[in-house]
Amino acid sequence: MAIGVCLVIIILLFQGMKLLPTGRKKVLYLIIYGSVLGAGSFLLHQLSMWANSVLVNIGLSEKIHNPVAAFLLVGIILTGAGFGYWLVRRFVISEDGSVDVGIAQFVKWAIRIIAVTCIFQEWYMFRKRGTE
């Protein structure tokens, strides 16, 4: 399932990369994207504050907040897996059942880059532990 979630994220990144701006308007689009990212992080913080106040107003003690968060996290992961399955069936697999070549190559290289990054991180941590 984790591989499926990573695949969905990689496919979404690939589709988003097609939409990246080019040309003279590049700076304007980057400013807009940065503003949307900042607004999204602000809204996420406000959403967590709102969820905390709702849980307190319902009468749930602070002790139960972690199990509720874990339950919601599992729900979000399962919803994401279902959404990913739907996305792959809709956008990746063509009518004849084959996979688009461009997406397959992008996923192949993305998995290789992630693997090399993980290997380098492990090597760095191993080296750091050896010096202590």
Automatic annotation (TrEMBL):
**Pfam families given in the database record:** NEMP (PF10225)
Q: Which superkingdom, per the lineage?
A: Eukaryota
For this record, the Gene Ontology CC terms, alphabetical, are: nuclear inner membrane
Q: Which UniProt keywords apply?
A: Membrane, Nucleus, Signal, Transmembrane, Transmembrane helix
InterPro entries per record:
NEMP_fam (IPR019358)
Q: Does the keyword Transmembrane apply?
A: yes
- The main location class comes to nucleus
Q: How does it sit in the bilayer?
A: Multi-pass membrane protein
Q: Where are the transmembrane segments?
A: 28-47, 68-86
Q: Where in the cell is it found?
A: Nucleus inner membrane
The record's similarity note reads: Belongs to the NEMP family.
PANTHER family given in the database record:
EXPRESSED PROTEIN, TRANSMEMBRANE PROTEIN (DUF2215)
Report the protein name in the record: Uncharacterized protein
Species of origin reads: Forsythia ovata
Q: What is the lineage of its organism?
A: Eukaryota, Viridiplantae, Streptophyta, Embryophyta, Tracheophyta
